[in-house]
Amino acid sequence: MDVAKKAQIKAHALASAELLYDETDPDQVKTLAGSEVAVRDHLLAHVGLEIGNFLSAQAAAQAEGENDNSKVSSDG
């Protein structure tokens, strides 16, 4: 991964972290264990879900494109 993409990921991750922090119980992040649980919960409920949906849509679009290219034309 190039430096520019890494920088974008970092910027987006920090912005997401700020939003998710606002949705986290302040008592939960007082300990390392609580912070780990909060991060895991947010990743599973929000971040991972969005990444999974995006990747699935991309795979479906790619498969559809491959199917369109392999169709035999009846024109002729």
Question: What does this protein look like?
Answer:
The protein is mostly helical and 76 residues long. It has one domain (3-70). Helix content is 78%, strand content 0%. The protein contains two helices and no strands. It has helices at 3-22, 32-70. The termini are far apart. The mean pLDDT is 90.
Concise overview:
By secondary structure, this protein is mainly α. The protein is built from two helices and no strands.
Give the SSE map:
Elements: H1 3-22, H2 32-70
The sequence of SSEs as H and E is HH
- Mean pLDDT rating: 90
Which structural class do the helices and strands define? mainly alpha
Principal-axis shape equals: elongated
